[in-house]
Amino acid sequence: MKELKEWIKSIVIAIILALIIRGFVMESFIVDGSSMLPTFTDNERVLVNKFVYRFREPRHGEIVVFPFPNEEDKILIKRVIGEPGDKVEIISEQLYLNDQLVDEGYILHDSAGKDFGPVWVPEGYVLLLGDNRNNSHDSRDPEVGFIDIDDIRGKTFMRYWPISKIRYFK
């Protein structure tokens, strides 16, 4: 009987710790679709740091997850392109950030997207784009638009599935 109580106590503690970690520290997400090719492919699994943005805002180049506006169950994964106050535009498939050409070695070849902007990112928001710009539902779409920093669920820091493609992201 004493052993059973110890097992139950251990299981309850493990469940509580798991809920705390998932709620406040990190969470697993499944990549849905091809908007982040070649960085991520459909059905890959990533771990997201939910803690980091309690202390600072998202930075250029970071990959974040967030709910589709007005659809909490639909989670998107995109790259931070514009921070608050930034001027962002795409001209002839080239990204310009604050009038400076950005080297985007991470995007899918010939996928910089149609001309866009210029737009200025408002305070408290970020502009997010997929790496596969020709097939991405992102901040260029009025349905998505700028994303409130408070709506970002976290920063992607690791792909853990498939095992053959495990990778940490800065």
Calculate Rg over CA atoms. 19 Å
Taken together, the total number of domains comes to 1
Number of helices: 1
Round the mean pLDDT to the nearest integer and report it.
Answer: 88
Biggest sheet, open or closed, and with what strands and sense? 8 strands, antiparallel
Query: So, CATH architecture?
Result: Ribbon
**What percentage of the residues does DSSP assign to strands (E)?**
35-45%
CATH superfamily: Umud Fragment, subunit A
Q: Unreliable segments (pLDDT under 50, ≥5 consecutive)?
A: none
Helix content: 10-25%
Sum up the overall morphology in one term.
Answer: elongated
Number of strands: 12
- Spatial gap, N to C terminus: 49 Å
Might you state the CATH topology name?
Answer: Umud Fragment, subunit A
H/E element order: HEEEEEEEEEEEE
- Class per helix and strand makeup: mainly beta
CATH class: Mainly Beta
Subcellular location: Cell membrane; Membrane
Catalytic activity: Cleavage of hydrophobic, N-terminal signal or leader sequences from secreted and periplasmic proteins
Membrane topology: Single-pass type II membrane protein
Main location: membrane
Break the fold down into its secondary structure elements and pairings.
Layout lengths: L1 H24 E5 L14 E5 L13 E6 L2 E12 L4 E5 L2 E4 L2 E2 L14 E5 L4 E5 L17 E2 L5 E8 L5 E2 L2
Antiparallel strand pairs: 1-2, 2-11, 3-4, 3-11, 4-9, 5-6, 5-8, 6-7, 9-10, 11-12
EC number: 3.4.21.89
Organism: Alkalicella caledoniensis
GO cellular component, one term: plasma membrane
